[in-house]
Design brief:
The protein is mainly α. The chain contains four helices and no strands. The radius of gyration is 31 Å and the shape is elongated. 0% of the residues are buried.
Length: 81
């Protein structure tokens, strides 16, 4: 991959050696392009949907959820002695 300008590094290095601020165009890794923000938003939403879906699938009927108070007390009494 070839940079847009061949002497970008030289211009940035000269500015640093002379104590001048380096122009932002010379220190970017690439030219201006598409924004990354839409990709971040879409991937975050997709991850949230997948996590909610996984939670809904795996949290169905796991364990004794509907035990009555008397059943809980009887089971606890077994371990009390």
């Amino acid at each position: 991959m070839e940079p847009v300008e061949r002497d970008r590094h030289k211009k940035a290095a000269d500015a640093v050696q002379q104590g001048r601020p380096v122009d932002a165009d010379y220190v970017r890794s690439s030219g201006k392009g598409k924004s990354v923000l839409p990709i971040l938003v879409i991937s975050t939403l997709l991850a949230a949907v997948l996590l909610i879906g996984a939670f809904a699938i795996f949290s169905g009927t796991s364990g004794d959820v509907d035990r009555s108070v008397s059943e809980k007390a009887a089971q606890s009494a077994e371990f009390a002695n």
